[in-house]
Amino acid sequence: MRRLLGSVRARTALGATLVVALALVAAGAALLLVLRGTLVEQAGLQANVAARSVASQLASGTPYDRLDLPDDTEEHPVQVVDADGRVVALGRGVERIAGTASPGVRVLPPGAADRAGGAGTVAEAAAYSSGDVTVDGDTATYRFAAVRATTPGGDPLTVYAGAALTGEKATVSGVTEAMLAAFPVLLAVVAGVTWLVTRRALRPVEGIRREMAAITASEDLSRRVPVPLSRDEIAGLARTTNETLAALEASVERQRRFVADASHELRSPIASLRTQLEVGAAHPELLDVEGAVQDTVRLQRLAADLLLLARLDAGERPGRARVDLGRLLEQEAERRGGDRVPLRVVAAPGVEVLGSRGQLTRVLANLLDNAQRHAETGVAAEVAAGSGGAVLTVTDDGAGVPEGERERVFERFVRLDDARTRDEGGAGLGLAIARDIARRHGGDLTTTPAHPQGACFELRLPEAD
Predict the structure, then answer these.
(1) What is the tens place of the pLDDT at every residue in 424-440?
(2) Would you state the pLDDT for residue 85?
(3) How far apart are CA 459 and CA 52, in angstroms?
(4) What confidence tens digit (pLDDT) does each residue in 375-426 have?
(5) Is 459 helix (H, G, I), strand (E, B) or coil?
């Protein structure tokens, strides 16, 4: 039972059945109330007609014992009561009466009415009540209409005429029985239709689930789940799932390339360092200490870059400190006093951004390292406040970046000038790290041609409020 209720189809069918059941109960109760009210109102109208017929006779001066009362007393029992509550006229065969102003069934002697000249009156309004009446031994419930009248002599009287509610009870009972009989059938139909419709609607979901299970078992991220031809939410789910699989496949492929490239980059300095140490161990006089130190430094920098990329990929969030971007650039330029080519710095004061000082320093260092590596005569760096926030531009007069490579240059382990040595070109991680940090700070890093030659790298960051 628990497994069955764990099914979406079962829960949907059960929920729909419960909702329909509640709606049917409410609608049925309302229908019965309206039906009963309508039938009671009709009975009241019939009783009102009978009461006014008798009241008109009294207003015209007809004696009590000569009143033309309804022949079928069981359908329309009549009682006429005077101002003192005494019964002056009563339908034939009435043995007990309730629901009127007087329960009496004994009639005054005939001739008690005042037959003075003139005309009596009949009230327009009628009052209604209900009660049980026994006629010739049979008891039933009636709807009474009470109509006031006065005789030509001015005697006030009240005429009570009833209409049987037996038909109302029978009709309401029949409708109730019919509703109770149809209720379970209708609920069964609703449950069955909901089950079938839900099953058909969820069939694509089951296909998606099976394919995802197969992908998980095979670890083949190139597979995709089937997309239904419909344009509903399930088709959207399938498309989103395929997009997620594509992104996951690309991410795994990037990780594989990253591991392969990192292994390749690490292998060279480690092998070189090992060779030098082995030579030094066998022939100390041949040990290249400077080369060993360079390989060690290069290995240390590569390890630091890889660790930083790992932290960024893990979702490390930058700090929220206020950093003066111009001042940070000036400090980085002062540290580079003996570089291969001169560095010209123009820094507008007061251009502040929110972020990690250490990571932003790494961005500046990587951009300046890249520019000075490719520049022929000089590098220019400028910080200014732009319309979209803080802007840092680093320009060199080197060969520039080909138009088709302006996005690829920001990929990891990419070096466009394959002819240069590894020691001169690095591992190809600097620009990738710089763009990753820029985007995690809410900005971006792009490159455009410089004038008249070279490359211009532009860093844009949101300015601190």
Answers:
(1) 556 778 898 899 999 99
(2) 86
(3) 99
(4) 988 899 999 988 778 999 999 998 888 888 888 888 887 776 543 444 455 6
(5) strand
Residue with tokens 């009671």: 40
**In the structure encoding, which two tokens stand for residue 31, read together?**
């229908």
- The two tokens of residue 304 are 């630091």
Cα–Cα distance measured from residue 385 to residue 462, given in angstroms and rounded to the nearest whole number: 10
CA atoms within 13 A on the CB side of 308: 21
pLDDT for 270 beyond 70:
yes
**Beta-bridge partner residues of 89:** 80
Check the CA dihedral 432-434-436-439 and report its sign: negative
- HEC assignment per residue over 256-285: HHHHHHHHHHHHHHHHHHHHHHHHHHHCHH
Residue 225 gets which letter from DSSP? P
Residue 421: what pLDDT? 42
Closest CA to 432 of 305, 316, 314: 305
Q: pLDDT tens digit string along 190-230? A: 888 888 888 777 788 888 888 888 888 888 888 888 888 87
Are 96 and 133 in contact, with CB atoms under 8 Å apart? yes
Name residue 386's beta-bridge partners.
389
Q: Domains in the chain and their CATH numbers? A: 1-218 (no CATH), 233-310 (1.10.287), 317-461 (3.30.565.10)
Whether the CB-CB separation of 70 and 85 falls below 8 Å is answered with no
Distance from C-alpha of 383 to C-alpha of 353, rounded to nearest angstrom: 12
Q: Distance (Å, rounded) from C-alpha 286 to C-alpha 279?
A: 7
What mean pLDDT comes out for the span 333-350? Answer: 84
* C-beta separation of 324 from 353 below 8 A: no
* Calpha distance 99→43 (Å, rounded): 15
- Compute the distance between CA of residue 240 and CA of residue 449 in angstroms, rounded to an integer: 38
